[in-house]
Amino acid sequence: MKNATLAKNFEPNEKICFDKRFSIKGLSGARRVLGCFMVDTKRGITAAKPLQNEIIDNCSLDISRKKFLMILFGMKGNEYIYFNREEKMKQSDPSTLHHYVSTGNTHKDPLQSVIGEKMLYKKQQTCEFCNGKYKAFEYRSADMKDILYLYGKDYPGDVKAYSYLGAYGLGYLKTDKGNYFVMSFEHGNTQLQVSEVEDLENLMACFDPSVFQIYEETKVVEMLQETEDRTNELNQNLVRDEQKMLNTNFPCAAKKYALNVYKNESNEKQKELLEMQSNDKIAYSNKADVLKVASRYDPTASIKMDRLQTEYNLCILKSDVESGKWSKNPDNYSKAIAKINCWENKVNEYKKMEDDIKAIDVRYSNDKEKAVEEKMKYQVKNIGPKMGTLRCNL
Questions:
Q1: Are 250 and 244 in contact (CB under 8 A)?
Q2: How far is residue 301 from each of residues 186, 250, 258, 357, measured CA to CA in Å?
């Protein structure tokens, strides 16, 4: 933090070397978590890995790992997410590993404010960390929502924090009374603490992201073109379906039309989201930005698509049964009736899930954040576990 004035914007493909590594542990809700992050104290850059139930790679910089994921953010407002994806050119081709960095466009337009000034007030409680190596004093924010344990040279009655380098509320804190280690951070149902601080200066812990492609300028552009192509195809399908609905020889044409209308709507929503990714500044450390993206997510989107497809398939199968197509083969007839019953149950269950999600949106129409939270809970508790029971492999 002594060199915080040297902090500057950095490019997504720029090599970064770190001089400190922090191991952390704690609670996120009821879940015990472990994690780590590294910092370049000279340039004001942090690299963090997601919190997990167990340490899998201990902040490994090995980009050949299939599930490599790391977030870099700087004191000057850059925020980059590095990740790998397996992709195929064709369905029959073998998968190849691609490296992407999602910048949220902060490489072109950095965040204006990384941390706001905050007053912290000393309490009498102390706590030792890292096997007694650091004895820190408790400080709290004025609203008492943030509880921090600070380690430093002096411990005045209050400090004004105005610069931060670290992750998950831990790391370095620059104040008007000096620099501190944040050894513990508690807010709401999150309680995290530093379990080890390692010096990396002699270990050459460097991250070279030169092979990573900027996601917004490559993959997003490619997917936008795919949505454009799909729009043309879907519009042609809708024209064809409208003509079929006028013909009594196609009793299920209305079902097919409803399916393609929804496919078109879903394609347009995906296009809007991709355009937002391409053009807007989206920082995933910013609560408002995360909410803007999350509020567009509909946990029943794939369910509705499958329901409409199932209703169309159901219509075709019922028409075949009613026309006597299966009457001469008792086994096939029995299988057709069983599949009809299974599909009808599946459609009814899907409709209930869709209605439940709509009810959540209505209930929290004035609180988007709560609506997103409740919909995610519903998906985990009700949608995920139910999907396996609704398969109709008859």
A1: yes
A2: 36, 27, 14, 11
- The tokens describing 322, both together, are 């009613």
Per the CB < 8 A criterion, the answer to whether 115 and 162 are in contact is: yes
- Copy the structure tokens of residue 39: 């910092």
Alpha-carbon distance 52 to 200, whole Å?
Answer: 23
Q: Which DSSP string corresponds to 141-208?
A: ETTS-EEEEEESS---SEEEEEEEEEETTEEEEEETTEEEEEEEEEETTEEEEEEEEEE-TTTTEEE-
Angle between helices 330-363 and 301-322 (to 10 degrees): 150
Phi-psi label, residue 321: left if phi above 0, alpha if psi -120 to 50, beta otherwise: alpha
Would you place residue 5 in the very low, low, confident or very high pLDDT band (cuts 50, 70, 90)?
A: very low
- Reading the block at residue 342, the tokens are 């299974």
Q: Which of these, 17, 363, 56, lies nearest to 202 by C-alpha position?
A: 17
Whether this model's pTM surpasses 0.85: no
Domain ranges of the chain: 4-111, 118-196, 213-390
